[in-house]
Amino acid sequence: MEITIDDIINRIDELLEFNRWTLYKLAKEANISYSTLSNIYARRTFPSIPTLYSICKGFNISLSDFFNFKENPLRDYDYEEFEQILINDYRSLSQRNKDILRAYLDALINSSKNQ
Q1: How many CA atoms lie within 13 A of 35 on its CB side?
Q2: Which residues 6+ apart lie within 8 Å of 37 measured at CB?
Q3: Are 98 and 89 within 8 A, CB to CB?
Q4: What is the dihedral of CA 19, 21, 23, 27, to 10 degrees?
Q5: What is d(CA 80, CA 5) in angstroms, rounded to the nearest whole number?
Q6: Which residues make Cβ contacts (< 8 Å) with residue 38, sequence separation at least 6?
Q7: Phi, psi torsion values for 99, nearest 5 degrees
Q8: Predicted confidence pLDDT, tens digits, the chain (115 residues)
Q9: Environment class of residue 58 by beta-carbon count within 10 Å: exposed (0-12), middle (13-18) or buried (19+)?
Q10: Cα(59)–Cα(69) distance, rounded to whole angstroms?
Q11: Are 101 and 93 in contact (CB under 8 A)?
Q12: What pLDDT is attached to residue 110?
């Protein structure tokens, strides 16, 4: 299967929509310049492997997940709107705050099991 620039752009668009992100937000999450992403769209140029890797890292997915066009794991989930908000909020947290939230959730789960 030959992968086209349209496939790459469509996949980025799909992931942006799924995460409810803008290109600017992706640039920040991927730690790449906005102009790099903008050039991919405007000039229809293939991203380099390091850029694509950074994009995937920003979306918190693997390269394999990115290129999984036919068996799209994003379509397997039917998140409610609030669940998606929680996921997006979680992704914006620092690692320290993610750890704190995880500990808090563990405590809530344990306390509900004991009731």
Answers
A1: 0
A2: 12, 23, 26, 27, 55
A3: no
A4: -80
A5: 31
A6: 23
A7: -65, -40
A8: 688 999 999 999 989 988 889 999 999 999 999 999 999 999 999 999 999 999 999 998 888 889 886 665 555 556 677 787 787 788 778 889 888 998 998 888 888 877 7
A9: buried
A10: 16
A11: yes
A12: 86
Question: Whole-angstrom Cα distance, residue 106 to residue 30?
Answer: 29
**Amino acid in the structure at residue 15:** L
Both tokens of residue 87?
Answer: 């996921």
Give the sign of the dihedral formed by CA 38, CA 43, CA 46, CA 49: negative
Token pair 């030959």 is found at 2
Q: Which residue is associated with the tokens 């992931």? A: 15
- In a 13 Å sphere around the CA of 100, the CA atoms on its Cβ side amount to 5
What pLDDT shows up at residue 31?
A: 96
The number of beta carbons lying within 10 Å of the beta carbon of residue 56 is 18
How far is the C-alpha of 27 from the C-alpha of 23, rounded, in Å? 6
